[in-house]
Structures are given as structure tokens and as C-alpha cells.
Amino acid sequence: MIIAIDGPAASGKSTTARLVAKKLNITYLDTGAMYRALTFQLLKSNVDFDNLDKVSTILGNLTIDMYDHKGTNIIKLNNEDITEQIRSSNVTKNVSEVSALLIVRKSMVVMQREIGYKSDCVVEGRDIGTIVFPNADFKFFMTADIKMRANRRLNEMNQSATVKTFDEIVLDLEIRDDKDTNRENSPLRKAVDAVEIDTSELTIDEQVNKIINHIKNN
Ligand code: DC
Hints:
- This protein has one domain (about 1-210): Rossmann fold (3-Layer(aba) Sandwich).
- By secondary structure, the chain is of the alpha/beta class.
- It is about 50% helix and about 15% strand.
């Protein structure tokens, strides 16, 4: 069984998808973390994103492991724990550019399908219901008011060392939404058969229950 959850940044996808997977006791796949891991590696290796030969070599040597540890989705790249590094502002600023590259998308889709075909999964991202798993058993598209999304990001940041103002966060989200929605390859889109959930006024529990109830009743 594949449950696809797509939506823009900070729409509540990640936490919801992780909890839905936990409740159903199936795998959780955060595809954004895969694009972030690649971006981290390209930045670390000082690879220019236009240098497709080098990007392709790095892609070919990429081993990403993901697993849950006490409620945190641990991301390992070639055995190095990069869970925190992939959330840095530098990775966040560059990830949309990296994920717009066709060779990157082609290779990530292959890896994501391999994982999805091996076990039942909740797969979260931007193009899951449209491109990666167009025949997913269930598809959801999560949205939320930009101010709500910025507030959520601000709360997350207050727990870390990063300092940004509310207005800066709104601008960051708008720029990333624009790049993810208007890119040529696999843009962020709601699949025609996806159930849209506006999370602006919902708690995490309510978001999770909406999805679980829909799955149970269909
Ligand atoms: O979900 P996230 O914010 O961690 O995703 C980071 C970036 O990765 C996002 O801005 C666009 C890209 N992405 C993508 O292009 N396709 C996906 N399926 C998931 C993420």
C-alpha cells in the first residue's frame, strides 16, 4: 500500500506523514530529506550545480539510509549522520535549485520507487501522487495559509540556534514555493484524485485522524 502526501513547505506534511506511518505500522519515506541530503553533499564537495557530470557522479555514489529513532527521522549519508545538517539554512536555500535538475529527479524517483515497492509506505514530498506513485492507493495534498506555515517554522526555529524574523520566513517560504511550483520538471501539483486538506486551523492530531479516517472509510 502506498499513501502519497504532497504539499508545499511547512504545510504540516512531515509530522503528519510520520505519525500516520507510525499508527499504521508502515514505513515513512521523507523524499524531501533525500533531495536535502544530495544538496548537502554537493555543497560540501563544492560542486557547481550546473556541472551535470559532477552532479551525476555524486548521485551515483549516494547511499542514503533513513530510519526512525525515538520519533526522529534519522538521515545517514554514506554512513554519516546528517539529520541536523540537512535542515541548515544553506541547504534549505539551495535545495530547490538542486531538485529542479532533471538528472536528479530521474535518479531520485528510481530510488523512491525501489523503497515503495519493497514495503507499505507513507511517502511524503511534492510529486509523489503525480509522478513517483501515480497509482498510489491514497493521495492527499496538504495546504495551509502562508502565515500559519511561517509561524510553525518560527516555532521550530526557536528550538534551534537559527534566528530569522517572521517576515524573513514568509519570504523564504514564498521563494521556495515559487521555485517548486514553477519548475519545468515534476513541479509541485495537486494530483487530480488527491484529497485536499487545509491544515491552517487543524492540530497535528486532527490532521492525522483525517487521513486515517479517510483510509479506513475508503
Ligand atoms: O519537504 P522539504 O521542505 O524537506 O523538501 C525540500 C525540497 O526538496 C523542496 O523545496 C523541493 C524538493 N522536493 C522535491 O522537489 N520533490 C519531492 N518529492 C520532495 C522535495
